[in-house]
Amino acid sequence: MSNRPHRKFEDLKVGEERVSPPRTVTEDEIVHFARQYDPQWFHADPEAARKSSFGEVVASGVHVLAVWRQLDHLINSDIDFVCGIGFDTFRLKNALRPGDTVYARSRILSLERSRSGKPRGTAVTYYELINQNDEIVLHFESINLVHARET
To answer: Rounded distance, CA 147 to CA 151, Å?
Structure first.
């Protein structure tokens, strides 16, 4: 079991930005994920998907979010999150296609200490998943509770 993340609410700064390493998505990965979790024909059937609006299989929105989460964990797993409590302005802007190489970027927009008296605060963070052509694949704001130090 890994150690608990060390960065607390007080360690975060508005404007702080982090960028993940790149990750390439394959057709096999897209099809395998789709067949298990989102078996729509244009995600799960390469032959049929050629006749879709996309002209090939594309990752489902659930898969896009999973790829973002995997990359975000590489750059923000040192933050001691309580949990996420919501997404705002969630948008899938461009398809995630076989062979695309993407990276995640995060930027803290606001920080507010809890008024409940509990040792935590709320961090609103803007997240993006960006492809090799500098096109945004996914973007949203996430509201997260973060553990604070006992005062």
So the answer is: 12
Q: How many domains does the chain have?
A: 1
How many angstroms separate the first and last alpha carbons of the chain?
A: 28
Q: Please say whether the beta carbons of 107 and 126 come within 8 A.
A: yes
CB atoms within 10 A of CB 71: 22
Radius of gyration for the alpha carbons in the chain, expressed in angstroms and rounded: 18
78's tokens: 């040192």
pTM: 0.93
Produce one character per residue of 118-142: b if its CB has 16 or more CB atoms within 10 Å, e if not: eebbbbbbbbbbbbeeeeebbbbbb
Give domain status of residue 1, yes or no. no
Contact 18, 103 (CB under 8 A): no
CA distance 131 to 114: 36
Residues 98, 66 contacting (CB under 8 angstroms):
no
DSSP conformation class of 27? H
Domain membership flag for residue 4? no
Range of the domain at 30: 9-147
Query: Running DSSP on this structure, what letter comes out for residue 79?
Result: B
> CATH number of the domain that 105 lies in?
3.10.129.10
Interval 53-95: pLDDT, tens = 999 999 999 999 999 999 999 999 999 999 999 999 999 999 9
